[in-house]
Amino acid sequence: MTELPDIADIARLLPHERPMVLLDRLLAGGDEGITCEASPRDDGLFDDGDGTVPAYLGLEYMAQAVAAYSGLRAHREGRSPRLGFLLGSRHFRSNVTRLPCGQPLQVSAQQLVQSASGMASFECRVEGHNIVQSARLSVYEPADPARYLAEDGQ
């Protein structure tokens, strides 16, 4: 991992708006991957009022880490983050069924493959106190997301 640029707000790396920005901060980032921190929130968006969120939310943390990785690269190139698409996940494993709210989690995404067409694959992990999740995500970042969405609707 390399030295991080001065980014006070991780939301600047993501093509999301609050409250859907689920990552809290950038911990490390480089050419091959990224590590972020997220703490599940009990703000009513995903929690069931019991102080936990479903474990499958870990997949969204992973997807946002991939988006932050892409956003960090864009930031370093002087570009804005672009919209990307989660195409699928494989081998999602979780040793828990619920994630406790307020407990910091480290979310990492390591790029495995990147094609010139914008397709990529990432090995991802979510780790915290007695929590281990992993999955491989397939993503697509088109050069022109608006055109891609317009073509997809025809």
Give the CATH class.
Alpha Beta
CATH architecture: Roll
Overall mean confidence score, pLDDT: 89
How much is the radius of gyration in Å? 15 Å
Strand order of the largest sheet: 1-2-6-7-8-4
Summing up helix and strand content along with how strands pair, one would put the structural category as alpha+beta
Largest sheet: 6 strands, antiparallel
CATH topology: Thiol Ester Dehydrase, Chain A
| Strand tally | 8
Beta-strand residue percentage: 35-45%
Low-confidence stretches: none
Task: Look at the structure and name the CATH superfamily.
Answer: Hotdog Thioesterase
Q: Helix count, per DSSP?
A: 2
SSE arrangement, N to C = EEEHEEEEEH
**Overall 3D form:** globular
Taken together, the total number of domains comes to 1
The amount of helix comes to 10-25%
